[in-house]
Design brief:
single chain; 444 residues; alpha/beta; Beta-Lactamase; Rossmann fold; Arc Repressor Mutant, subunit A; 5-stranded antiparallel beta sheet; 5-stranded parallel beta sheet; 43% helix; 16% strand; elongated
């Protein structure tokens, strides 16, 4: 990228690589400024979102159009450091994440900055609708319409009467065992469901727990889980945690259709359906010889994605866990504000559903009103806001207007958008409120 003679960016140089074409079809608003903060590029999405034509903004200081938003670009120009994933509400009904990066020429000299603004309003509104529709749903209903539930139910429905059926894999905390239990409940299990937590069993105990003991003169016969689940379903939670010798014996029992309790000579037929869960890395363990391929391929496989790949479900599960916590603590159920939904949706949830449950418990304990806001969430979940970024960048005169704008927005939210009530709360006339709404671009 080159600089023009007057210090601006020769943005048309990007045409040789086709970058401009790509930027113009992006759904995100893209702004490029030169080293002086003048707009050098403004894509079609930015025109559409802000209603400002290219010819009206190109070559002019970005701060003339966006006093608040320009802080990020100007800060990047000043520090030469990128700023990423900053949450902002340019208008009360909009939710966006902004990232800005420095632009340098071939010699490494800072020649400008670029900002990408992703509009997540539609995602938040969809999440809020899902959460509202499922406000009274139980866990079974949450799973009911997922593609994984449909797949598991189909496999259970058309599988053989006895023998292995489904192995559900995924990261810890994705809800694998709950999914299987709900699918069995939805279909109607053929008999009792016997669950074995394999991760808690040592090698001798796992043999006894699954296959039982034949008994003798010194000890009575003890049936194992394979026998006790006869006519029903045996759910092996974390089957991949079983010792390798037990896995080989289980693989033989499943593929041959019979098993022999330790210490006995008589074989017993396998008369239960077996379903199981395992961690997402099980295929790699099979390839490494750490899990018997014979056993692995005896199952039909279903993979449940991590929560970060199911972002449209996050707010629904959040409301579900909020209800659980509030019922336990005897508190009324709070609603999730837009900034809270944005924060929950943006977070990657490495701990999946258990982490989300703990976050909702912390939020309920912290919240003081009828809403859970982003400020009530655990610190790692709270998004960096444009106000946070601008704290040291805005001059004092600008701060007074920023604080006034935020107070008006808060009053409108508390009054459900009723401007007459908001004006009374703020101690100003309704006409003054309308004037300030126009002044700050908050008419919506």
């Amino acid at each position: 990228m080159q600089e023009t003679g007057n210090g601006g960016i020769d943005i048309m140089e990007l045409d040789t690589t086709g970058v401009l074409t790509i930027l113009d079809v992006m759904p995100d608003a893209v702004t490029v400024v030169d080293a002086e903060g003048r707009v050098a590029y403004w894509n079609r999405a930015a025109e559409r979102v802000y209603g400002i034509a290219r010819e009206d903004i190109l070559g002019r200081p970005v701060s003339e159009f966006f006093p608040r938003e320009s802080v990020m670009l100007l800060q990047v120009l000043q520090t030469g450091m990128p700023v990423t994933h900053v949450y902002h509400r340019p208008r009360p009904a909009w939710h966006v994440f902004i990232s800005a990066v420095p632009l340098r020429d071939a010699s490494g000299r800072l020649v400008g900055a670029a900002a990408v603004e992703r509009d997540i309003t539609a995602v938040i509104r969809l999440s809020e609708r899902h959460a509202a529709l499922n406000a009274e749903a139980g866990q079974a209903s949450l799973w009911l319409h997922t593609p994984w539930m449909s797949e598991v139910v189909e496999l259970l429905r058309f599988g053989p009467a006895h023998g292995p059926l489904v192995l559900v894999m995924g990261e810890p905390g994705t809800g694998k065992a709950s999914l299987l239990r709900q699918a069995l409940q939805e279909l109607g299990a053929p008999g009792p469901v016997w669950t074995v937590a394999c991760e808690s069993l040592s090698e001798p105990l796992s043999e006894l727990e699954l296959f039982g003991a034949a008994g003798g003169s010194q000890a009575p016969e003890r049936p194992g889980a394979l026998a006790r689940a006869a006519g029903g379903v045996l759910l092996l939670r974390r089957i991949d945690a079983l010792p390798i010798t037990t896995l080989h014996r289980l693989g033989h029992a499943i593929t041959e259709g019979w098993f022999q309790p330790p210490g006995g000579d008589a074989s017993q037929p396998l008369r239960c359906r077996i379903v199981a869960t395992a961690d997402a890395n099980l295929p790699e363990r099979v390839a490494a010889g750490e899990f018997p391929a014979r056993l692995y391929y005896a199952f039909q496989h279903v993979v449940v994605p991590p929560l970060r790949a199911r972002r449209d479900e996050i707010s629904t599960w959040a409301v579900h866990f909020l209800r659980e916590v509030c019922r336990e603590l005897g508190r009324p159920l709070p609603s999730l504000t837009g900034d809270a939904v944005a924060a929950l949706t943006a977070y990657d949830w490495p701990g999946n559903l258990p982490e989300l449950r703990h976050a909702m418990r912390a939020a309920v304990q912290r919240a003081t009103g009828p809403e859970v806001t982003a400020a009530d969430l655990p610190i790692p979940l709270r998004p960096v806001t444009l106000q946070d970024v601008a704290k040291e960048a805005l001059p004092l005169p600008r701060w007074s207007s920023e604080l006034e704008r935020d107070r008006i927005e808060q009053a409108l939210r508390q009054c459900g958008g009723n401007k007459a009530r908001a004006a009374r709360m703020l101690g100003i006339s309704r006409g003054s409120l309308y004037y300030k709404l126009r002044q700050y671009g908050m008419e919506e």
